[in-house]
Amino acid sequence: MSSGRVKEYYKDTTEELFFAYSNLFFIQNRTVGVLLFLSTLFNRNIAVLGLLSLIIALLFARFIGVKRNDPVNKLFTYNALLTGFAVGFIFKITTLSILLTLGMSILTVLITYTLSSALYLYFRLPVLNIPFTISAMIIYLASAKYSNLIVDSFYKQEYFNIEALPAFIQGLFRAVGILIFMPYDIIGIILLIAILLYSRITFFTAVLSYYAGIYFLAVLKGSVPLAFQEVSSFNFILVGVSLGGMFLIPSKRTYLLTLSAVLASVFIIDATSVFWVSFGIPVFTLPFNLTVLLYIYVLGSVKYVMMNQTHLEQPEKSLIDHLNYKNRFDWSTPSINLPFMGKWTVYQPFDGEWTHKGVWKYAYDFTIEDKGKTFKNEGQQKEDYFCYGKPVVSPVDGTVVDVYDEADDNDIGTVDKVNNWGNYIIIYFNPGYYVELSHLKKGSIKVKKNDQVSKGQLLSECGNSGYSPEPHLHVQLQYSHLIGSAGIEFAFNSFKANDLDLDIKYLKKNDSVTALSSSKTLTRKLQFILDEEFIYKVFNDDIQTGEIAVTVKMETDGTYYFCDGKENKLYFGNDRDRFVYFKYDGIYNSELRYFFLALPSVPLSDDELIEWNEFIPDNVFRISKLPLIIKSFNHKLNKICGFYIRNDKNTVAGKIIQNGRVAAQTKAVICDNKGIKEISLIFNKKTIRLEKI
Fold it and tell me: H or E element: which one contains 205?
C-alpha cells in the first residue's frame, strides 16, 4: 500500500472513530468527537472499554462484510461505544470485563443491524440508540450472575465536581456528563462548551429541553430539589438535541413540538422506572427513544412541513439549506408550460368569479386582448375575437389519453349546456398528472388518442365550443383522465407576466402572459461535461490577485457541481427551463460563491428585457451578523434578495438587497461558446472581477 493510501486510510479510520464519539450527541463533527474522547480519559475504565468496544464493533463489521460506506456503520459505532461505557462504568478493567465488552460489542452490532433494517423497512424510522439500551439491560441482568467481575461503579470521583455551584447549574452539568457515564460538573462543562462551539442551536435546544423537563418534573412531584436529582433527566437533553435540530428544521414551531416531546418523556421516565426498578436496572435512554420515534413517525406520516430532509450534520446548515430550497424552488406544486404562443390575457383565474368554483376552482381561462378589448369590430362574430383560431400547443411531454372534436362552436352570447367542456384534449404526463385543454375549435384537433406529444407541439386551435359565451382557452390539471374531473393547484413555467416579471406564481385576472422562447443555444452554452475545467483570473479593484480553477464534478447521486479544488462545491443543473445554482456548500472565502451571487439562475430563453428575483442564502452572500439561532425564531429576518435583469442575450445585471438597501451590484457575461465569460461584483466600495482565461 502506498504512503498516500496509508495516510488516507488512517484519516478515514480516525474520522470514523471520532465521529462515533460526536454521534453520542447526534453531531457529525471531528473536533467535538476529539473533545468527547478526551473527556472519557478522566475515567480509565470508561475510556479503555468504550474505545475497545468501538474497535471490536468496527473489526467485526468488516469481518462479516459491512462496508465502510454502509449507512448503518455510524449507527452501530456509537451504540457499541455506549455499550463499552456501560461496562466500564460498572466494572474495572480485567480479563473478564474485556471478555464481556467483546461479546456485548458484537451483540450490539447484530442488534443494531437487525433493528435498523426492520425499523426502516416497516416504519422508515432510525434506530437511534435502542441497541445500546437493550445491550445495557443485558449487561446489568447478566452480570448479576458473574461473581468474578470486579464492580467499580459508584466509586465517585468527587474531585471533578464544583460544590460551590448552585443545584440548578450542577443538575445541568451532571445530566450532560452522564451521557458518557461521567456525571460530574467539570465533564459537563467540557461537553457543553464543545456543543456550544459546534452549534448554538444544538446548545440552546439541549439547555431548553433540560430545564423544561425539570420544570415539568418539579410541578408533578411538588419538589424542585427532587426534580434536579432525577438520574434520567439526560433523556430531556437527548430529546431536545434530536428533535430541536436534527430531525426537524429549527423554528418556533419546532421548539414548541420539542417541549411537548419533553413533557411526554417525563411520563415515560416515571412509568418505566417503576417497572425496571424491580429488576434493579435504570431506564437508560428508553424514554428518549420511545418519545422521539413516536414523534418522527407521526410527523412523517402527516407530512409535517418542517421535517428535516437535508441530512446535514449541523442544525444551522440544515436551516440555511431549508430556507434556500423553500424560497427558491417549488417542487411540490406541479407545473406546465403555457399552451400557446405569443401574449395572452387571463380572462378567469383560480377561484374566478364565474365558473371556476368548488372542485373546479383550480383552472385558468385565457383570451387575447388588444387595447383592453378581446375582439375587433362589434364582436358579434366568432371570427371577431383575437384568440379564435389561434394555435394551441402542448404544455407538456406526454401521452394523449382522450380527445373530443364533435362539438360545434357557439354563436356569440350562446352556450352549450350539454357538452360543458366542448372540444377538448386530455394529456397524461409524469409524475401522474393530467392536463385538460378545452373549448377548442371544431375540426382543428391534430392529435388522436395514444399519440405521444412534446412541449410546443401544435395540438389544435382555440375555439368557442361548450359552455363558452365567447372564444377562450380553458386549462386545468387533474388526477383523473376523465373530463370534468376536479382540478388541482398548479403553476406555469417559462413565461413572463405583464411584459417583464418571471416570478408570479399565481396569475390574476387581466394579467398578460407571454411564453418565453426556448433557446437551444443558451442551453448548450450552460451544459457542462464531467471533468471540464475553467480557469479564471481574479481581480480586486482591477489588480490581479490570483487565479481559480473551476472543475465539473459529480456526486454519487448524479448531481453535478463545480469544485475549486478545496472541497468547496457549487451545485448546478436545469430546473423548469432555467439554469440554476442549487446551493453553495463551502467556506466564505472561496471565489466560487461569486458565481452564485452574479447568476443564481437564468431562463434558458433568447428573450431579452426580462426580470426575475432570487433568494440569496446567508452562507453565500456574507457571514451573517445575525446568529442563526435568532433567525430560527423568524425565518424572514435579515432576508437577502437578488433582483436580476437580462439586457441582452449574454449579459445579466443584478442588485442584491439586504435590509432595504443595495448591498451589492453584480454582472455576469455568458460566453459565446460555453460557460461564464466574466463575473463582477461591487460591494463595500470594492470591485471583484473573475475573468475567464
Answer: helix 200-221
Average pLDDT, the chain: 91
Rg of the chain over Cα atoms, rounded to whole angstroms, equals 32
Interval 85-102: pLDDT, tens: 999 988 889 898 999 999
C-alpha 217/C-alpha 220 separation (Å) is 5
pLDDT digits (tens, 9 = 90+) for 327-336: 999 888 999 9
What is the predicted pLDDT for the residue at 206? 96
Measured CA to CA, the distance from residue 469 to residue 475 in angstroms comes to: 16
Cβ distance 160 to 183 under 8 Å? Answer: no
Which pLDDT tens digit goes with each residue over 473-506? Answer: 999 999 999 999 999 999 999 898 887 767 788 8
d(CA 553, CA 567): 11
Identify the sign of the CA torsion 474, 477, 478, 480. positive
Specify the pLDDT at position 429. Answer: 95
CA–CA distance, 675 with 671 (Å, rounded to integer)? 6
Q: DSSP of 255-269, one letter per residue? A: HHHHHHHHHHHHHHH
What letter does residue 481 receive in the DSSP assignment? S
Q: What was the pLDDT predicted at 154? A: 47
- Cβ(315)–Cβ(202) under 8 Å? yes
* Residue 165, C-alpha cell as written in the block: 455551584
More confident call, 111 vs 70: 111
* Residues in Cβ contact with 662 at an 8 Å cutoff, skipping those fewer than 6 apart: 655, 656
Full-model pTM: 0.87
Contact 148, 95 (CB under 8 A): no
d(CA 250, CA 326): 14
Adjacent-strand bridge partners of 474: 365, 438
Please report the pLDDT score of residue 156 as a whole number: 59
Q: Are 398 and 429 in contact (CB under 8 A)?
A: yes
Per DSSP, the three-state class of 305 is coil
Task: Copy the grid coordinates of residue 642.
Answer: 437578488
What is the C-alpha separation between 448 and 425, in angstroms, rounded?
9
Every domain of the chain with CATH number 2.70.70.10 lies at 335-489
C-alpha angle with apex 482: 478 to 488, nearest 5 degrees? Answer: 15
The closest of 663, 668, 491, 503 to 581, measured between CA atoms, is 668
Residue 312, pLDDT score: 78
Rounded to a whole number of angstroms, the distance between the first and last alpha carbons of the chain is 39
CATH superfamily for domain 335-489:
Glucose Permease (Domain IIA) (2.70.70.10)
- Distance, in Å, from the CA atom of 55 to the CA atom of 183, rounded to the nearest integer, reads 25
Question: Grid coordinates 431548553 are at which residue?
Answer: 208
Q: At what angle do helices 286-301 and 130-143 cross, to 10 degrees?
A: 160
Grid cell, residue 474, equals 380553458
pLDDT digits (tens, 9 = 90+) for 445-463: 999 999 999 999 999 999 9
